[in-house]
Amino acid sequence: MTSAPTAPATPALDLSADPAELTRALCDIPSVSGDEHALADAVEAALHAQTDLEVLRDGDAVIARTHLGRSRRVVLAGHLDTVPIRDNVPARLVDDADGRWLVARGAVDMKAGDAVFLALTTRLPRPAADVTWVFYDQEEVAAERNGLGRVARNHPDWLAGDLAILGEPTDGRVEGGCNGTCRFLVTTHGRRAHSARAWVGDNAIHHAADVLDVLRDFRPETITVDGLAYREGLNAVGISGGVAGNVIPDECTVHVNYRFAPSRSAAEAEQHMRALFAGFDMRFVDMSPGARPGLDAPVAREFVAAVGTDPLPKYGWTDVARFSALGVPALNYGPGDALLAHADDERVRVDTIAPCLDALVTWLS
Ligand SMILES: N[C@@H](CCC[C@H](NC(=O)CCC(=O)O)C(=O)O)C(=O)O
Description:
It comes from Pseudoclavibacter caeni. One of its GO terms (molecular function) is succinyl-diaminopimelate desuccinylase activity. This is Succinyl-diaminopimelate desuccinylase. Its EC number is 3.5.1.18. Keywords: Hydrolase, Metal-binding. By secondary structure, the chain is an alpha+beta fold. It folds into two domains: 19-178 and 291-364, Zn peptidases (Aminopeptidase); 180-288, 2-Layer Sandwich (Alpha-Beta Plaits). The protein is built from nine helices and 19 strands. The strands form five sheets. Strands 1-2-6-3-7-18-8-17 form an eight-stranded mixed sheet. It has a four-stranded antiparallel sheet with strand order 13-15-9-16. It binds the ligand N[C@@H](CCC[C@H](NC(=O)CCC(=O)O)C(=O)O)C(=O)O. The site of the ligand N[C@@H](CCC[C@H](NC(=O)CCC(=O)O)C(=O)O)C(=O)O has 18 residues, from strand 16.
């Protein structure tokens, strides 16, 4: 008789381990966007083991909070998902002249930040502010799938706080606000024909050269917003077209990503792009407006002072935008060099993780 297959056991996370060890354990549970279930289970089990925390599960988001009666509440938020794996899970340790590195998908974006936040639950069981931890799914993909957005719709009270800290990679400095990001498709059209008699067709892929010319000639701006200089960017991130090896194609689509400064609203960003690609067939497929730095809120100022270095702008899009829109001042702070995020050799220097935890412990003590 054969027995029914059993589901693989959820790996146990030791939240009292060194945060670099914990980062490694998190990286070893793959969690590409949309497939975070195993990691969310592991995080939920570890948070349930902390007896003083109230824990909530919403899809593959896990939220926990203290009820210590403090006058302030700080929200520590991190996404659990990663961009696709590229032979970089499980994690490995590599030594070079700069030190020891943990090489793994998600090491920078943003499992080291998640590890710091998770480790805080055991390092500082009675913080000076009430704390809410939010670990959520599907941040790296279209805005409509974002797990924090779902939590905001289903349980808005769980996101309340005086300051939200997103543990996105900032190399241990504060990065304020974030650029907006949007994606759109620019499609060129033609007429199908046999490629042996191309003169009766019209090649849509060749027309895509006009779209690429616009992109190549575009000069992105750097826009200073409340003292921080946000670099914009406009890039093709995909291109598709073609019917068969002997057919003149009638359609070609260029997938474009525009990163825009937080001084532009979503509508302004869209209008800017529509003007740039006037006359082309365009369709917007994702829109995530940015957030101004917002570092003037008293509690944000205190945190910046505690970290002790000048804030920088965040060039990527992060959920500081969502917290800011909800009226919660928010900033980015976590280990890892954002320049290494999403790279094939994504890696975090092991000795840069614990200092972020130490800084939070000091600030919240
Ligand atoms: N809906 C957006 C989401 C993109 C989110 C992603 N964020 C990061 O990589 C933050 C890391 C950093 O820059 O520090 C992004 O900016 O691409 C979309 O689908 O594009």
